[in-house]
Amino acid sequence: MKIGIVGGTGDIGEGMAMRLSPIFEVIVGSREAEKAEQTCRMGLEIQKKRGIDCSLTGVSNQAAIDDADIVILAIPFKHLAGTLETLHGFEGKTVISPVNPMEKRDFFITVPPEDGSAALMIKRLLPSDAKICTAFNTIAANKWKALDEELAYSVPVCGDDASAKHEVMGIVNKVSKLHAFDAGPLAASSLVESLTPLLLNIARYNKMHDVGIQFH
Amino acid sequence: MKIGIVGGTGDIGEGMAMRLSPIFEVIVGSREAEKAEQTCRMGLEIQKKRGIDCSLTGVSNQAAIDDADIVILAIPFKHLAGTLETLHGFEGKTVISPVNPMEKRDFFITVPPEDGSAALMIKRLLPSDAKICTAFNTIAANKWKALDEELAYSVPVCGDDASAKHEVMGIVNKVSKLHAFDAGPLAASSLVESLTPLLLNIARYNKMHDVGIQFH
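Above: the input entities. Below: the structure tokens describing the complete assembly.
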């Protein structure tokens, strides 16, 4: 299975690529293909030293979409609409949104778009047969990157296409100790997108780092 | 320390009273004092059979406020404003809101009031020197009532008065294995109030019961 990561050289995207590439064929996209190639070269070296085989290819964001079966939009919310405008080829693809529309004021808070959530905004901006799923929203960049640490967290997954959601939950469950939970239709994504600002507040006010979540 | 529970004969309030009364002096309030008295008689019997001493007194909602140092508003969101209109005497008291403004449509979703959260609505409706804190939002009624089960959950607590928040976190940490986390100012409560509909969706779509949450 080929997973394309749009924004794959960003903080979160890079960590995702490192964690996913020993399991799946990962295509790292960036606005500049060269930057993606460089990220992948470095990533392959790091994994080689750890004795781990992986599949990492750096290309442009557009090529990452074109070559992939599943696309992850690892883009900060503020760049989401602008980036999607420049890209095409999402028809029929499964698209994963880990995007959280939030702001840091005195504390972190969700600032959802008029659609109600980043996920619903993506649904509006992409072709109607793209299968959008919310996933990976609460895994901090530092956690993705700490390759020797287990990710023992719960991951709520929303989506309207049952088989795409099932597929995404399968991907989640293959990464470290992540545990996927079906969190309902895409319209319930606003609840998932509210978790990360809460976790950031908890980290800040309790002097913790990179707080994660478990459901049980 | 005297804790008054407004709505203490409701589903959640009753379970809270059972869990809190072995630790604190609990005053159960109800629209009908007689109903509160009956609930407390039954509660005392149940605890006696378990060999547990507790302090449970049933009174009217108003008397529960008047006699208590700390007041818990165990009221469903839809009755919150109407109930608060009929009550007074909150001046200077610490007031705990476990209230979640949510609706069940095809799935559960938050439907916050114009204030942004139930907590901020309570702040507007009560005297300005009442010290509102959000707490206990995600503990399901069935969990409160299952007295022989441990409550091994995280409890985010929001509030603007530092000493009241500290006091509320202390109360949370004395109940079973609950673990309080400072989740920031009262204005961050909307993030906390979004958790319960998410947990209800997860329970529903994964065929689970009374899902709880842990931060770590």
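Note for the figure: The first helix of chain B runs from residue 11 to 20.
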